[in-house]
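Class, discuss our next protein.
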Amino acid sequence: MAYGCRIRWSVEQRGPSGEKVGAASTVTTAGPAVTKVALVTGGAKRIGQAIAIHLHQLGFDIALHYCSSTEKATALADELLGLRINSCQLFQADLGDQKQLCALTAALCERYSSLDLLVNNASSFMPTPIGDCVTKQFDDLLDANLRGPYFLIQGLLPLMQSRGASIVNLTDVNIDRPLHHYSAYTAAKAGLASLTRSLAVELAPHIRVNGIAPGVILWPEESGTFDAAMREKAIENAPLKRMGNPQDIARTVEFLACNAPFITGQIIAVDGGWSLVG
């Protein structure tokens, strides 16, 4: 990311579901007077949506990737385009499918001359008890959480060489304190954390690579994944005694991408202190 510029936008502050949460404000960001571009994978909903909205408010043009959430992706893109013309482009792909991933990187290279920020947010999450896990489940989790980000980075390297680009990978605090029955998921996310550190060395000095390990930010979409008692315990065990919210992750992405030029290879836990005592 290039530093020392002035980009100003008058925007409405909106939450992760698109709701207005404050009065319109003017945002000034650092960097040269050129449009910055961020790719957010899995950006149509939940944490990815919050990241996309926040980066757009900062002045980034958004390359918004989604897999199957077509309606939500279209609605978000329409909203961002309504705030600033030509500031969002949709890209659909299953990152676990190599042909689709290659088509995605080709489309991005055709659309943009450079990419300032890649946020590997897209993820897959499911229980896989070791006695029941089948090859397809393991492969699906590995594809979504490790293989996809790896080959996406590889395919986008030509776009990320000219302006000091940044990569932010979303891992998970549970890679150090694994969840019961989620061994394949945590192994894949642990691989992504290792990849973050390895690529920070390999891609330096031109590209910085960091990670964010979210704690309890949003509960999984499958309502039965954690029962009420487990959810209450997770919150009670965190020193801050509360859940976080998607904006906590979005602001950390901003910090790593825009305000931390001397940080690379680090993974920041955003978990209310849970990883210290959980």
